[in-house]
Specification:
single chain; alpha/beta; Alpha/beta knot; 5 helices
Length: 157
Amino acid sequence: MRFQFLSVGKANESYVDEGIKMFTKRITNYYQTDWTIIAPPKNAATLSDTELKNKEGELILQQIKADDYLVLLDERGKQFSSEALANFIQQRANESKKNIIFLIGGAFGVSEAVFKRADYKWSLSPLVFPHQLVRLILAEQIYRACSINRNEKYHHV
């Protein structure tokens, strides 16, 4: 199984980049992992929110194959405990999913096409976080889930 993290937005600021790299490296001890940052369209400032979501949606859908399992991070999604997230990942492994994509959409969310394509919608929190911090939190939580599945001591109950 492979994890692919997709995020719409700018490249990571240095204050979060180090943490993202650290947790991503740790995740690679369990699964092949990579990040793709999708730059917003050049004319983003001239587009309506809906037009921007649709343009970003086209860029996102180009990155996703038919057999990829798409997890959309969305405020309307289901929340997990760390243990439940670990179980969710283990279930995908048991189903022999080859590629799990965790998607962080743009500032205004994702297009209807991307929302419908998502196999699962996950909410990190009812709070709103900057996209850069969401990337860091996502990487840390996926690492935590992997360590739980291996009964390693990173996660303390």
